[in-house]
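ping. complex inputs:
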Amino acid sequence: MRIAVCVKPVPDLASAYVSKSRSELVEQGKRVPNPADENALQMALDLRNGGEVVAFMVGGEEAQEALRPILAMGADRAYLVTDPLAQEGDALADAKVLAAAIRRAGDFDLVLCGARSVVHGMGQVGPRLAEALGLPQAARVTAASVTGGQVQVERAGSLGPATIALPALLTVEPGANTPQLPNAIAVMKAARKPLESPSLEELGVSSDESGLAGAGARLRLTQVP
Amino acid sequence: MTDEMSAAELLAAYGVAVEEESGDEPRGVLVVLEGGPEGVNPLCWSALGAGRDVADAFGTRVEALILGAGEEVGYQAIWRGADAVVLPPAATSFDAQRWAEIVAQAAGERRPEAILMAGTDASREVAPRAAQRLDTGLVMGVQEVRPEPEERVVIGIVPMYGGGLLGEYGFPVRRPQFFCLAEKAGREPSEDGSREGETIWLNA
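pong. complex structure:
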């Protein structure tokens, strides 16, 4: 099994707070992997059966802070798109960039994403990425097993279990499993794992389709409820 | 030149090219309803209520696309505020890829300026796929939609960081403006059995 895992760098909410006077989140710590994406990675590690797990991320230079724990947890290598023109995109733009990066990395049996991020919680990137890659999908997966070219999934919500032909994309529900924390040796080895940072040009994505320029919906204003 | 000159005539007099309205700008609101053997999923009615409010503010009409059921449930949408029901050539049970294709096809043929879906488990899978096909944005988990008729834009209000902040999202350029409502967001419209509307079939 060759598995792609998409990871979003997010603020560490444990050390962030909402400023009522500024109506914004004030970040005090480093960027961390989105928690549901860690569940997706753990599911990939459980399913890979000796195969390769490759992590994909779109983010600025500071996103490397969020990628290191993913490599330490067990991803074999990673693609980090730090191109400035790819930053501040919405799910529409990010799905295009991630799809291009995944295509560049070759064929995968499964693509896994967290079901939603702690920032907006919309859960769009996974299904959008499935559409961009032309893959069938199952969302909010709580458990998965692979047999005979198919993946059997349990899902949160009302849609129930499903069996889907591979290759496929799954979005993994937060708390679906317990991500295994890496030990000190794994953390040191992570620094030597391959990390590729392709430019948008190398990915074949135009600047007006990515980042802020490629966004469909934009946040105009934040306010304290 | 006289005071009676229109703005277009005035611009033409100064040699400024005036682009005439093409008449094919997106118009109307498309609300996506999920049907089944027992009729329309009741969770979808609040999306129809919100769609009706947006359409009234814009002075346009609401078309209800029905997925997963056929003509037999169309009257329910008309009675609750749709001006027309839009039906695919054949009803299909839930399949995220197929339903996303139908939503995108309906948007392509009907050219709405806004699309609304209810926040069901099915729509959370279908709406992002459809939005990607349409190359447009999508705002999900919307607590409130607020039409701004002068600009013909719709603003979606969404909780962020677990509800610590509220975000206002808009669509500066891309169309259609696509929203997926949070459960129980929007007004549930009452039934009016005297309302009538048309049925529109999508191309096979």
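Chain A touches chain B at residues 13, 16, 18, 23-25, 90-92, 95, 118-128, 130-132, 136-137, 139-140, 157-159, 215-225 (CB under 8 Å).
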